[in-house]
Protein 1
Amino acid sequence: MSVASSSYLTGLIGAGIGPSLSPALHEREADRHGLRLIYRTLDINALGITPEGVGDLVRAARTLGFDGLNITHPCKQLVIEHLDELSPGAEALGAVNTVVFRGGRSIGHNTDVTGFAQSFTRGLPGVPTGKVVQLGAGGAGAAVAHALLDLGTDELILADIDRDRASALAQSLNKHFGPGRARAATPSELTARIAAADGLVHATPTGMADHPGLPLPAGLLRPDLWVAEVVYRPLDTELVRLARATGCPTLDGGAMAVFQAADAFRLFTGLEPHPERMLEDLADLVGAPIPQP
Ligand code: NAD
């Protein structure tokens, strides 16, 4: 990929994104390349724009000369109808977290899927992935589920307090990956499903600073069950601490956040990012020890 420009204007559209780490992650990486890159947050709450207004905002950014945008909650699906083209991954998922303006066209990508896949392969190398239980079937959950089925998970059990959401995600996964690969669990079968699983992925907001706590009973973890967390603020969620203390191979949510940013940086600039340096930046930004593979 060739670099078409010597400076870049990028940003993030979403609601309540003031504390986002994306500006710092992208701008620090650009500094390492000796590149001028500005990354602005376009917070729809602060701007008084409804989520449905995302199309106008994307068009305005394009008119103003932005090279690309990240898109987050609640606009990842709503933005699709306003784009000229989708990558195969974004099309399969039905959600876009990165838009690139190139050659007069707007192209939607999804680097949450590729970000989780790289983070998983780096952080939990060689773990069995045949049977996985996933808590949470929202935006992050859908991306993670696609990544897991891409990585070869045979049976993905989805659990969500909103059972319809888990069922709808299972249905759309089976349509894309083939029948029987994903299934929504009833709350009563969760214990047995985790007992039979190789690994557990957590993709609900539980464990974030404003949603403290554990998303499942502590006694369901065991040392031969790997645990992958998606929450990354804080990096050391209650689940991550419990999983480590239990002896589970454990992955926190930081590397997914970094690899999705690194993939977006590559799409925006055409330059190869340094994810290991970006991981150091993330740890620095959230005040945590540097995550090791
Ligand atoms: P979302 O609101 O789209 O989905 C969350 C889902 O979890 C909902 O379907 C909800 O019903 C379900 N849920 C809530 N509590 C539950 C519980 N106790 N048990 C079962 N299901 C429960 O949110 P999202 O965008 O998917 O984000 C989820 C988390 O992932 C957030 O903490 C977010 O910060 C994090 N995230 C991390 C990354 C990363 O790069 N590491 C990327 C995206 C999101």
Protein 2
Amino acid sequence: MDPLVVANWKMNGSEQLLQAVVQQVDGLAEATSATVVLALPAAYLSLTKAFDNTQIEWAGQNVHWLTSGAYTGEVSATMLAELGVGWCLVGHSERRQHCAETDDMVLAKTKACLELGIRPIVCVGENLQERQAGKALEVVSRQLLVVLKDIPSALAPLIVVAYEPVWAIGTGEEASPEVAQEVHEALKHAARSEVKALELRVLYGGSVNEDNVKTLMSMPDVDGVLVGGASLEALGFRRICEQVAGSV
Ligand code: PEP
């Protein structure tokens, strides 16, 4: 499986940054086997049409589970699909935490994406308390299985999982490569208990930067990375992409 780099800008960025990042990473995907996906704020997704001639792929950061209605501020999968957006983050811990997203909402959003052919990047991760209580594997497996148990197994290969320990997001304290490997292996095992022979792609996210990405990618079950803060600097993000591409 080709490695995948997903940039999560969160509520950051500008048109200028978009130009700069595209300029840096365009051509990388063509020249290497890595896939580069930019998860932009919804306001910038319509600008991506200007980059149809690049190999860069686009993601929403959130989606509603309904197709339309009186839900001010929300974006539907239909709208994302209309813009040619091929991916969407689902269940990012910031949304679970600040917008009270539950496992059931994450499932409904995943289904909404799959119905429109949008590939969901399902984010899972334990918080510090859960890790300290030895519950990390139990928490992430539950978050994943809620989704896998309720979608047609034929669609399961379209799902990508991002393991993002909450204590590592935006803190500068990444999980060690060994911790990431342990959790990724457990997630793949849990996935196969639900969908036989599923080759689940699992990304690592949480304080990834150009200094730690290579070691993280050297782990056998780390299939790519989800990059937040470090994706907001065009040249630095390019260096991350180059290292991910060189890891295969
Ligand atoms: C994220 O937002 O998904 C993330 C991993 O952020 P950061 O890289 O800044 O920790």
